[in-house]
Amino acid sequence: MVQNYSKILLIKFLDAVVIGPWIHSKRPLLKTGNASFADIGGLDDVIEQLQEVAVIPLLHPEIFLKGGKPPIRGVLLSGEPGTGKTLLARALAREAQATFYTISASEIISGVPGESEKELRDIFRLAKEEQPSVIFIDEIDALAPDRHISSEGSRRLVTQLLTLMDGVEDRGQVIIIGATNRIDSIDSAVNRSGRFERIIECQIPNVEARESILQIHTRGMPLEEDISIREIAELTVGFVGADLDHLCREAVYRAANRLFGHNRLVNAEKIEVQEFNQSLN
């Protein structure tokens, strides 16, 4: 049974971030979706790997020049929807003080022959001009499907992407982050040397990871002492980061709805936290 939690102070609503087919954030990077690695819970191992293969090369390319070997320029994030892949890419760009571009494969694919390839070329060109840069490709399985079982248009798009990714020197100080929850459907050539050379899995969080995520999502909502984040984490088996974020938002909306009317909502100082229970149900 979910216990009845007592009360919670309603401080603020969190702002939602809407990402279009691609967004260009100019340096100096004051905002990259308001995300940093400190805003991501339960993915410490993934963050450590990204810092190693992506942040360090973008901030200190001279290390690899002296070493005589180019850094990894492509990282593939694999995991279920809502496990934080997009958030990781945006935080990476902010940590590396890099220009950020994001490509939504479902939106860039066009029915006009050659249009999708042109848009890809334009984004890579802009990324090179504004380097250091991070290009994030969401749903890359839709952009680079297995060419043996795809249409002629899809094969042309895959070939264009591979051409753009080939050659570290040609790309300059640009790193590509791909995200997918269907890694087996991606064309095998994508993972070859010089392209996506590192695959990092974003796993469904365990109870400790869920507790860490909840601590982040509730840090703008000061809790009474008798509210246990650990107990909420134990009740949310199978929840990913996006689910936990929605749970916290839904609890606030239910609390606001319970306060009957604008005047009472404006003047209220405390609201009951039983809305967490209702949100879970």
Strand composition percent: 5-15%
The total count of helices amounts to 13
| Distance N to C terminus | 11 Å
Helix content: 40-55%
Mean pLDDT: 78
Secondary-structure content class: alpha/beta
State the shape: globular
Question: Biggest β-sheet, characterized?
Answer: 5 strands, parallel
Describe the fold and architecture.
- The protein is an alpha/beta fold.
- It contains 13 helices and seven strands.
- It has helices at 44-59, 62-67, 85-95, 105-108, 115-129, 140-143, 152-165, 168-171, 207-217, 229-235, 241-258, 262-267, 275-280; strands at residues 7-8, 74-79, 99-104, 133-138, 174-180, 198-202, 271-272.
- It has a five-stranded parallel beta sheet with strand order 3-4-5-2-6, sandwiched between helices. Strands 1-7 form a two-stranded antiparallel ribbon.
- The longest helix is centred in the last third of the chain and has 18 residues, at 241-258.
- The chain is globular.
- The N and C termini lie close together (11 Å).
- Residues 1-33 have low confidence and may be disordered.
